[in-house]
Design goal:
- By secondary structure, this protein is an alpha+beta fold.
- It has helices at residues 37-40, 55-68, 173-192, 215-224, 229-242, 246-258, 262-275, 280-303; strands at residues 7-9, 15-17, 20-32, 44-51, 73-76, 83-110, 116-143, 149-163, 195-199, 202-204.
- The strands form two sheets. Strands 1, 2, 3, 9 and 10 form a five-stranded antiparallel β-sheet that branches.
- The chain is flat, with a radius of gyration of 29 Å.
- The termini are close together.
């Protein structure tokens, strides 16, 4: 499992956001909570029986997808587990004759070079075949200790293909169904597993309202983030002590987030919002992101 404080630097281009200039960024790798947190507290996940004609295939796909996420120990069946995943999958295949209109050339001529050229087209009706495959899975995870359902979902998938005279017929049904069940399994695994994400918040470089004698110093500090983040953050903090400014506060939030000090990051982003109310939406987005990092950090501590 990745450590919450891992980060590294990358240089990226400049960007404008909400009227405030932003320049360099820092790449941060963090752990975020699952969309459905309650099942993520379970350590050993058992994939029990999945009913339906394609239930076995879906069960195997779920074992692979959940296991590949690295968060759960996945076992077959429901013995000696913390959670049990079970459900039902249905598959419906329909073929029908469909009518299409196509524009075809009905009169051609040749140019002086002998190349054919269409001079009149007409719409013609042709009859084609259409195959529709619907796969729908109803799944749930029950906590083994008390039977409480901690995750319940319905995942529909559809594949529709039409082919006309002269065109190749679609691939085999089994292969299509396998692809749909794999897609369902991957989505379930994503929803119930915490995930590691790499993102790149950009430093504000706006000097609007900052005393001119600090402009060059602040600009140099921003550039330095790409080669010496720790030193650059120390310089930004020194500037902040001298001349409080929304960009300095926000950038200190990024510095704190990059080193894993999430509480300090939230405090800095909140201060930036107070100093620059018109960009509150941008600052709140950063606050929401860090709150999720805190949730997952605390969940992992509890899990240990």
């Amino acid at each position: 499992m990745g450590r919450l404080r891992s980060w590294q630097l990358v240089a990226v281009g400049a960007l404008a956001l909400s009227g405030a200039a932003l320049a360099e960024s820092v790449k941060i790798t963090g752990r975020f909570p699952a969309d459905y947190r309650e099942p993520s507290f379970l350590k050993r996940m058992g994939v029990d029986r999945i009913d339906g004609p394609d239930g076995r295939a879906l069960g195997y796909a779920l074992e692979r997808a959940i296991g590949n996420r690295g968060h759960y120990s996945v076992v077959a069946g429901g013995a000696d587990v913390d959670g049990i995943l079970s459900g039902f999958v249905s598959t419906e295949i329909n073929e029908a004759r469909v009518q299409q209109e196509r524009e075809n050339c009905v009169e051609k001529t040749k140019d002086p070079s002998g190349n054919e050229k269409c001079v009149r087209k007409e719409k013609q009706t042709i009859y084609c075949r259409q195959r529709t495959i619907d796969v729908s899975a109803d799944l749930r995870i029950a906590r083994a200790s008390d039977g409480r359902v901690v995750y319940s979902t319905r995942k529909p998938r559809q594949n529709a293909v039409t082919w006309c005279p002269g065109e190749s017929a679609p691939g085999a049904v089994d292969g299509v169904v396998r692809g749909l069940t794999d897609s369902i399994a991957e989505e379930v695994a994503r929803e119930i597993s915490p995930h590691t994400e790499t993102y790149a918040p950009r430093f504000y470089e706006s000097r609007e309202g900052m005393p001119k004698e600090f402009h060059d110093r602040f600009k140099a500090a921003i550039r330095a983030t790409q080669r010496d983040l720790t030193g650059a953050c120390t310089e930004i903090a020194a500037l902040d002590q001298t001349t409080p400014h929304f960009a300095l506060a926000y950038d200190l939030g990024i510095c704190a987030e990059a080193r894993g000090d999430y509480e300090a990051a939230i405090d800095a982003y909140r201060r930036a919002a107070t100093l620059r109310p018109r960009d509150t939406a941008d600052f709140n987005a950063s606050i929401d992101r860090v709150r999720k990092l805190i949730v997952q950090r605390d969940d992992e501590r509890a899990r240990r």
